[in-house]
Amino acid sequence: MRCFTVLGPSQTGKSTVVEKLGSLEGTPRKSNSPYGLNLTEFIFGNEAWCALDAPGPNEALAHAQQALLASDACILCVSPAPEEAVLAAPYLRIVEASGTPCILFVNRMDEPRGRLRDVIAALQDYASHTLLLRQIPIREGDRIIGSCDLISERAWRYREGQPSALIAIPESTAEREHEARTELLEYLSEFDDWLLEELIEDREPSSDALYAISSRVLRENRIIPVLIGAASHGNGMMRLMKALRHEAPPVGILRQRLAHAGTVDEGKLAAVSFHAYHRQNVGKTVLVRALGEGLRQGASLGGSSLGAVQSLANGRSNSPVLPAPGDVFATVKSDHLPVPSLLTSGAVVAPPEWTEPPTPMLERILVPASERDENKLSETLAKLSETDRGLKVLQEEGTGAQLVRAQGPVHLRDLCRTLADVFHISVTDRTPSPTYRETIAKPSEVHYRHRKQTGGAGQFADVKLSIHPNERGQGFTFGETVKGGAVPRNYFPAVEAGAREAMEKGPLGFEVIDVGVTLLDGQHHSVDSSEHAFRTASKMGVRQAFSEGSTVLMQPIFRTEFHIPSAYSGSLVQIVAALNGQVLGFDRDEAAKGWDIFRALVPGGALEDLARSLRSATQGIGYFSKTFDHFEELYGKEADAIVKAREKSGTAH
């Protein structure tokens, strides 16, 4: 079986392309994943094929990446509008990072929205590989009525619902065809000495020789050939499928590529797991592509026994037929197989780094509808994070509530639907609170005496403390300058422990940071003094100093790193400034042509608005990662509102 992925932005007709390709020589068999990855099995040219239709939204980019892990080649569908080229930037990025041979298909050419050369020029801004036209459109006024193949120099006129008709190259197209063909041959000659010599000697190379060179160049992932068509009318589908059949590499090349990327012995690499999902009453289903011989139910794969091997189309056992190298199959009761991963018989190998999805930006607390589902929710989210690498599961600081990081609102909605439909857990979501702190603005001294008399031994401790602000980031410090044994040394740890307890919650209701406490003097009683008494005196004394002094609210500041197409870099300055952030600068992303890495410091309370503004400004393409940098003072109405909200909720984060 040969396998390819069809990917690209939403509304570029990917699913229609797969449907038309699968129906060229028969009736395809389809299967769907809850995550939007659709699989189509079909026969073409007496060969078995599997098309992986990757979901289009940027929030599902992780599933497209994983599909590439199992693909011999891919088709990248793009819009015929030059201004929409930027929407393909994330897909060009992952295709090139993966090393997957790619054919770029400009779909919906029946909608004239710009010149093809302008589309390719705009896309080239985001591709390190040369985008090389293999076809040009034939126009009749504003309509595109056919295409001309630049290798065979044959022209085809589209016919609705029928195969295209062979025609002579129109005179109006001849000059453009000659120009584009010359450019094609010059690029191909860079990878073939024979062709270069033919061109120098002004000899016309044969079509068969050119097709052979094109096939080799694609298999070696040297260029990205560009084909055109309109899948909704069936235009260009046969040419696209023939290009895949003759030029896409066999499964053995994929095995070599993955073994090299994963530093695995090629001879031991048996399979790759690339997708998984949970089904009600079935459990975890893992999709696997065989790369070697000998896979069957009970065989050792990934260090344990492979579960039931099932057909993709109907979910029935495939046990009579053993998966051959290249076959794609589903397996259940194989929970030991992580996704994605490279698999030998005895081990699981981590996938290449390029499969790491974009950092999720949307944070939400999930609250189960019933208390009995709280433990179940935690276990279920852990399971789902194993099948969805774009999802991160944590716990909220202070409350321990379930915190999820999703790629965006659509991703979050799908997660909640899966929890309800598959696991019968209804949840609501809320925005997590930023982690605020407080500190003191000026030093003070306090004298506190703790005295308590009961029926037995009493409690007595007398402390004189100095409380002062520390430098930012220094945290809590403790010291003592007691002379003459006024407070015995064995009580010093108790005094420090009491001061630390007082730091747990200040007058504003938040943890106190960056404060130093010094024990200056005190008194003790030979009978009634104890560690407990001095601990209590210290805690109450520090709290008294806090209440008498001026405490300041501290907000968290995060160092953010944005990954965005260069066209959007300018808009980020205004976004960060509007959120009271500080721009640190940007650099070109050396790993992805046409992308920038933009850095800024942003208040924690603004991250939610930042994610929303970034999605809007970059059409959902840009994303950012964040790391805590420091706390800084926050004053005025904003600080007052945060304190009042904390008092109203009765909790501090």
From TrEMBL:
Residue stretches making up the Translation elongation factor EFG/EF2 domain: 433-550
Transmembrane segments: none
Keywords recorded for this protein, A-Z: Elongation factor, GTP-binding, Nucleotide-binding, Plasmid, Protein biosynthesis
Any one GO MF annotation of this record: GTPase activity
Protein name: Elongation factor G
Entry keyword annotation includes Glycosyltransferase: no
Taxon lineage: Bacteria, Pseudomonadati, Pseudomonadota, Alphaproteobacteria, Hyphomicrobiales
Function of the protein: Catalyzes the GTP-dependent ribosomal translocation step during translation elongation. During this step, the ribosome changes from the pre-translocational (PRE) to the post-translocational (POST) state as the newly formed A-site-bound peptidyl-tRNA and P-site-bound deacylated tRNA move to the P and E sites, respectively. Catalyzes the coordinated movement of the two tRNA molecules, the mRNA and conformational changes in the ribosome.
Elongation factor EFG domain boundaries: 552-642
A GO biological-process term: ribosome disassembly
InterPro entries assigned to the protein according to its UniProt record, in alphabetical order: EFG_II (IPR041095), EFG_III/V (IPR035647), EFG_IV (IPR047872), EFG_V (IPR035649), EFG_V-like (IPR000640), P-loop_NTPase (IPR027417), Ribosomal_Su5_D2-typ_SF (IPR020568), Ribsml_uS5_D2-typ_fold_subgr (IPR014721)
Species this chain originates from: Rhizobium phaseoli
Record has Transport as a keyword: no
